[in-house]
Hints:
Elements: E1 3-8, H1 12-24, E2 28-34, H2 38-46, H3 55-60, E3 65-68, H4 75-84, E4 88-92, H5 99-112, E5 116-119, H6 126-136, E6 143-151, H7 171-186, E7 192-200, E8 210-217, E9 222-228, E10 238-242, E11 245-249, E12 257-262, E13 274-276, E14 279-281, E15 292-295, H8 307-318, H9 327-346, E16 350-351
Parallel strand pairs: 1-2, 1-3, 3-4, 4-5, 6-9
Antiparallel strand pairs: 6-10, 7-8, 7-16, 8-9, 10-11, 11-12, 12-15, 13-14
The chain binds nicotinamide-adenine-dinucleotide.
Residues 8-14, 34-37, 40, 69-72, 74, 92-93, 119, 121, 160-161, 174 line the site of nicotinamide-adenine-dinucleotide (NAD).
Amino acid sequence: xxxxxxxxxxxxxxxxxxxxxxxxxxxxxxxxxxxxxxxxxxxxxxxxxxxxxxxxxxxxxxxxxxxxxxxxxxxxxxxxxxxxxxxxxxxxxxxxxxxxxxxxxxxxxxxxxxxxxxxxxxxxxxxxxxxxxxxxxxxxxxxxxxxxxxxxxxxxxxxxxxxxxxxxxxxxxxxxxxxxxxxxxxxxxxxxxxxxxxxxxxxxxxxxxxxxxxxxxxxxxxxxxxxxxxxxxxxxxxxxxxxxxxxxxxxxxxxxxxxxxxxxxxxxxxxxxxxxxxxxxxxxxxxxxxxxxxxxxxxxxxxxxxxxxxxxxxxxxxxxxxxxxxxxxxxxxxxxxxxxxxxxxxxxxxxx
Length: 352
Ligand SMILES: NC(=O)c1ccc[n+]([C@@H]2O[C@H](COP(=O)([O-])OP(=O)(O)OC[C@H]3O[C@@H](n4cnc5c(N)ncnc54)[C@H](O)[C@@H]3O)[C@@H](O)[C@H]2O)c1
């Protein structure tokens, strides 16, 4: 059976979904597109899609599934409208602007029985699959610190909705939620207990263009997320520390990195010193090389593919699977996101 997909918002991401669903997903057909902007509707027509001229007609079209790819401030209303018109929904991230909005959407999903899920496509990245294997395989002993970082150096276009707080712009909504979702899934058997965040407006005047979020988990693990739009020298995408070793993955969607472990966990403290021209240090004296071992990264034999996301949706519609991105996961992600905004505003730690 082929399911019918309708797409609202034919901007960068909406048009990407249309093209990629058409080329890569059998079992789904794009049957309708709507965008508020006439130029985008014209483009969708030129790209060969059936285009509706009004939002009301669009929501009444014959489709099984609606993809919401409008600016973030419209997600709540568009998801609710789609479900109330009998459609299942995939929403672009972030699900909503805050937890209050999200609960409204989930209530409609529960009432109508329609699927509601979010496109957390960064769960399918190669770098993420590797760090996940390291965590799940407990290759580093007890984890205590994770750094998840991404850097750009172009900012947001000042003309677009991403540069306005009211429309759900800013880096925490944009990349922060991807990174929060990844971290929560990495430590899914743990419980986040508090959030501390710093949001900076370096060159943007209305939204954050640098964000740092620290999530503390019940086990004691702390995960720091850094997204920064004004960095010209990047640091490694992932850096994980455990009681017995450390791991690094250098690039976003890459496979390069290493794991270094201490060979002997009961190593005896030897008296010794590390001398520098300006003094000495016993504390920072590194272990001898022969006491360390390098492990290759546990790259999964089968890497996750973006197609897995929509193939799961098709199985859910068939009644053969449950959704990968669950309501509870979406709720937790938005709860952490909301807490991060509150923490940054009040400049304190927010308990979850
Ligand atoms: N998952 C990902 O990897 C990823 C990547 C980029 C963007 N996104 C998400 O996709 C969504 C869209 O982002 P984008 O980068 O494509 O933005 P965009 O500005 O390129 O596209 C948004 C489109 O929505 C249209 N629009 C605005 N208001 C509308 C309305 N009321 N009704 C119908 N159409 C409306 C605009 O005309 C525009 O064409 C956002 O939620 C964003 O966070 C996700």
